[in-house]
Design brief:
Elements (H helix, E strand, L loop, with lengths): L1 H6 L1 E2 L12 H15 L1 H5 L8 E5 L6 H12 L3 E5 H5 L5 H15 L3 E6 L2 H4 L4 H5 L3 H16 L6 E7 L7 H4 L4 E6 L5 H12 L10 H6 L6 H17 L7 H22 L4
Parallel strand pairs: 2-5, 2-6, 3-4, 4-5
Antiparallel strand pairs: 1-3
Helix pairs in contact: 2-4, 6-9, 11-13, 13-14
This protein binds adenosine-5'-triphosphate.
Length: 273
Amino acid sequence: STAKLMDRTIKSTTTFKDVAGLKEAKVEIKEIVDFLKNPETYTKLGAKIPKGVLLVGPPGTGKTLMARAVAGEAQVPFFSLSGSEFVEMFVGVGASRVRDLFKKAKESAPSIIFIDEIDAVGRTRDKANALRTNDERESTLNQLLTELDGFGVNTGVIVLAATNRADILDKALLRPGRFDRHIFLELPNKDERKEIFLVHLRPIKKAADVDLEILASLSPGFSGADIANICNEAALIAARKKKNEVAQEDFMEARDRVIGGLERKSKIISPKE
Ligand code: ATP
């Protein structure tokens, strides 16, 4: 299991240059970078550096990207774990994974732990959940709470966790000293979409007719992930047509495909909700 965890330790090369828009979130996240880089500035004044920070926002708005950028900017190791992995695990495995992960992160401090989809383990323990046997989820959640409380303040480990919905999280997770800081990531507006397109157009060989203004205007409601998807899809379409450059029409075709994909997804999801 150590080997498995080692796989998940990465040196992040992501920086704030890769994160477009999200101005307010970036201001707050920069403070986290500073906690990791210059802890003495805070500790010498008797301040307690936050342990847990919740990144809250719709799918594809850059929560994972932002967490990686923190590690990349602060140049600290990044340990990650996805909440949904635990749901199917055998009893005891989730808790021991959490324990191992915190141990490794403490040994490599300063460091970042990133927990994606924390709602998968941290949902409110309500009646609906109690009907199903959710022992594994519960023991993983309890271990997570134990770890958060167990490591002292100012140990140099900061836990970032991502969720689409902070409102469904167990209140125990949100108490002071746990995930008591929340950073909100919103869907991008038109200008922000433009900035995101710029980031993802960087590696693309584009034709002179590519119009960023039009691309941004015609993608309302799109997330950063959707935009990244359009740019890559456009390049694939152009390659298939044996072109030397990616033209506006390729982007428009890619956009239609991404919209098609989104519509299919919402059709599958909507009957349940
Ligand atoms: P989910 O909730 O679905 O896990 P997420 O919020 O963690 O999504 P990411 O995985 O960070 O979203 O985003 C997916 C990809 O979309 C990123 O790797 C990046 O390529 C692109 N992306 C998302 N937001 C931005 C942004 N603000 N700037 C640049 N690229 C972005």
